[in-house]
Amino acid sequence: MLSLSVAQRTELKARAHALKPVIIIGNAGLTPAVLDEIERSLKSHDLLKIRVMNDDREARAAMLQEICELLKAGSVQHIGKTLVIYRPLEIPIAKAPKHRSGKSLTKKQLGSKT
Q1: pTM across the whole model
Q2: Range of the domain at 61
Q3: How many domains does the chain have?
Q4: What is the pLDDT of residues 28-50, one digit of tens each?
């Protein structure tokens, strides 16, 4: 499970405020299909809002804990029936473009390319 500092959680809460829930967990609970969908969403978005249609607060807290442990995400917020989780995106580092001769392009060449 990813641990977040207080400052990180505060910044992520501010970012999550404008988000709409992407995943809705229904009466069936946390099924493997729901976990797969959350995993797919975390690959394209680092911050997710999840809506849980369960009235039991302890059950929602247990779901949040299980999601964070299984998917290596951090718990940002649990407010009512809404859970907010965060996992940094894994973005591959792009290599610098090369000239036909195999040498890296200069800043001037990169600027004129656009």
Answers
A1: 0.76
A2: 6-86
A3: 1
A4: 999 999 999 999 999 999 999 99
